[in-house]
Write a structure and sequence with these properties.
Chain A: Pfam families: ABC_tran. The complex is a heterodimer of chains A (234) and B (292). Chain A is of the alpha/beta class and 234 residues long. Chain A is 37% helix and 26% strand. Chain B is globular, with a radius of gyration of 19 Å. The chains are: A alpha/beta (234), B mainly alpha (292). Chains A and B meet through α2 of A and α6 and α7 of B.
């Protein structure tokens, strides 16, 4: 589905990613784990074209993404939910969702909106309210719903659990699991909260200082005491 | 009583033009954080294009349409050619460029159109209507001015509120990176924003010119009032720009009518200082909600 091959990225003299290679398989949740500064967010930004790679390749469904601009990604079936939620607070909930639907390049159908309102009833109840009135958990639901509006096959999620209560995190992860099972969605999930992420993911990749230090089944990673203590903090 | 009414009516007409000009500044500022100081000379150039056509024998309406169209094109060209290359640099670079453009357009207009005062026609009467035997300060052209600004503003509101392109433009204005991730071609939206702003500025330019004299510097005082009106409204809110423009127009009209016309510019600065002291974010500030 999504394959990275020896991907390197830097901010000036600082190397953020070094020779990162792994594959996020179709219909699976792949968790990218690691401490703050391990390069997780940079990885997503590079994949979605917000950040330029120094070297290496990215392939989505067999297609090289090298020079593809970020604003073309929704058309290729990839949606990126950025860190810090990325709700456009000055727009209403429905406008945020419609905006997501426009990314697929055709008119937004009421049925598309209804599908998201079915998933997140709270959004449907307040569709005309400005998005800045939403709580943190509701905002996370809104950005996931907005990403789904474009009908992606690959969803990039950056720290969806950040600042949310464990109960809400569980709810959001359950929903992701459901989408993967029902729609065959593939997810690349970046998380600092390794324990929750591994509980929902099929596969895990651990980054440390921009390098891949482990790449295995989620269950295997979760059972590896040494790895957990060294890199995952639980 | 009659003088009061007349002063208010005169202020309303003028305020509409300030509102349009302020709106032009706000449309650009809220999406790019750039105050376009070249807005006045850009409007001056498009008004001269209209005048050239009218003097060549075409009707006022051909000139009017040409000015708006020229504004649209000029705005897009300025964004693409001048602003785009410094997009990633601090905003002050672009602001200085618009100041440079101000000077260049002034000089070019003097060379191309001449530096003399020329009279600009009005499509409707510029004498006040007669009501009950006395003349009031509302002219046929004044009604047209108010109507034209209201129509253009209503069209803009409809564009932003009800169309997909308007939604994309708002998204690009509020959060460029998120908009990009959602497939919005942010560059195109910025170009379109500049084009629309310049169109509204051109409208203000040709409305001020109607029934009056134009020369390369005739818009320069309007940029001051338009800027004050935009700041009154908080520089980010289109509604604020309109209310700011009307407030300023009516206030200045009262200063001119009851205190003395030589104090108008001073009064504008006084109002600006007052608002900035009491409500630094403008009358419509939502400063608390704004990310920095």
């Amino acid at each position: 589905m999504l394959t990275l091959h020896e991907l390197s990225t830097s901010y000036g003299p600082v190397k953020a990613l070094q020779q990162v290679s792994f594959t996020a398989r179709e219909g699976e949740i792949t968790a990218v784990l690691g401490a703050n500064g391990a390069g997780k967010t940079t990885l997503l930004r590079t994949v979605s074209g917000l950040q330029r790679a120094d070297s290496g390749t990215i392939e989505l469904e067999g297609r090289r993404l090298g020079k593809v601009a970020a604003d073309r990604m929704p058309g290729l079936g990839m949606a990126h939910v950025p860190e810090g939620r990325g709700v456009i607070t000055e727009l209403t909930i429905e406008e945020n969702l419609r905006l997501g639907g426009l990314g697929r390049g055709r008119r937004v159908q009421p049925a598309d909106l209804d599908r998201v309102y079915d998933l997140f009833a709270i959004l449907g109840d307040r569709r005309a309210a400005l998005a800045h009135t939403l709580s943190g958990g509701e905002r996370q639901m809104l950005v996931i719903g907005r990403a789904l509006m474009a009908g992606p096959r690959m969803l990039l999620l950056d720290e969806p659990s950040l600042g949310l209560a464990p109960r809400i995190v569980a709810q959001i992860f359950d929903l992701l699991r459901g989408l993967v099972q029902s729609d065959g969605l593939s997810v690349l999930l970046v998380e600092q909260n390794a324990r929750s992420a591994l509980s929902v993911a099929d596969h895990g990749v651990v980054l440390n200082l921009g390098r891949v230090v482990a790449d295995d089944d989620a269950a295997t990673l979760a059972a590896d005491d040494q790895l957990r203590h060294a890199y995952l903090g639980f | 009583m009659q003088q009061l009414l007349n002063t208010a009516l005169g202020g309303l007409t003028l305020g509409m033009v300030y509102a349009a000009f302020a709106l032009a500044l706000v449309l650009i500022f809220r999406s790019t954080r750039i105050v376009n100081f070249a807005q006045a000379p850009m409007a001056m150039v498009t008004t001269f294009i209209a005048l050239t056509l009218i003097d060549a024998g075409y009707s006022y309406w051909i000139g009017f349409a040409a000015a708006l169209l020229a504004g649209l094109v000029l705005g897009a060209v300025v964004e693409r050619v001048l602003i785009r290359p410094v997009e990633d640099k601090p905003e002050i670079n672009a602001v200085i460029l618009t100041l440079g453009l101000f000077i260049v357009l002034h000089a070019l207009a003097a060379v191309v159109f001449g530096n003399a005062y020329r009279s600009f026609p009005a499509p409707f009467g510029i004498r006040g209507f007669e009501v009950g035997g006395s003349t009031i300060a509302l002219t046929g052209f004044g009604v047209f001015t108010i109507g034209a600004v209201v129509v253009v503003m209503a069209l803009l509101v409809a564009l932003f509120r009800f169309t997909d392109v308007g939604l994309r433009m708002r998204a690009a204005a509020y959060n460029q990176e998120v908009a990009r991730l959602l497939g919005v071609r942010v560059g195109r939206m910025l170009t379109l924003g500049w084009a629309l702003a310049a169109l509204v500025g051109s409208l203000a330019g040709i409305l001020i010119a109607g029934g009056s004299l134009v020369h390369p510097g005739y818009m320069d005082s309007v940029v001051v009032y338009g800027f004050v009106a935009a700041v009154l409204g908080g520089l980010e809110s289109p509604i604020g720009a309109v209310v700011g423009g009307l407030t300023l127009g009516v206030s200045l009209s009262f200063v001119s009518g009851y205190v003395g016309s030589e104090l108008v510019a001073l009064a504008a600065l006084g109002i600006l200082m007052l608002v900035l002291t009491l409500r630094p974010g403008g009358l419509f500030s939502q400063a608390a909600e704004r990310r920095v």
